[in-house]
Amino acid sequence: MTLHIAGAGGLGREVLDVAVALGEDRRVLFCDDALAGQTVRGVRVIRPEEADEGEFTVGVADPAGRRSLAERLTAQGLRPRTLVHPQAIVGPDTVLAAGCVILGGAHVSSSCLLGVHVQVHYTASVGHDAVLDAYSTVYPGANVGGACQLGADAGVGANATVLQQRSVGAGAFVGAGAVVTRDVAAGAVAVGVPARQR
Fold this sequence. Notes:
With 198 residues, the protein is α/β, with parallel strands linked by helices. The chain contains 2 helices and 25 strands. The protein has 2 domains: 3-80, Rossmann fold (3-Layer(aba) Sandwich); 83-190, UDP N-Acetylglucosamine Acyltransferase, domain 1 (3 Solenoid). The model has no long low-confidence stretch (mean pLDDT 97).
């Protein structure tokens, strides 16, 4: 069965790394409007509308772009596929919804719930009992503490920390290196140590 990686940019190539590590790279195609007709790392790139059967994983960090591609490919009859790098850790009693991506070195602890198309990037960690809503993203090296909640489309930037039992509202973004000690409102940007919303 063909695995379509939607997006052939940097993150798309990192998703390809996961497929290679899982030994599933022989039947992979990239889907990318901008790069269609080209070859990226030896993989043919087609337009998304050319994907007519199989599975897909979205390799785009931007939540709006990820959502758009996921909805487009689902409407064409493709099935979302969750990919977990073999060097990532996913704890017991944790549920990964369809289309999640867990990159190498990431650690998702026990009893977590990750919604559709959530991404946890290289060396990032998610503590026990955390809930990450659809299309949220934990960027490289970030730490989301136990019992935290990330709203839909929220992002935690590289090397940022969200302390335990805090929430980051839908569409909010925690800047790189920030430390969240208080809840972050929906749509806000939080930066600094301790993080302040703006």
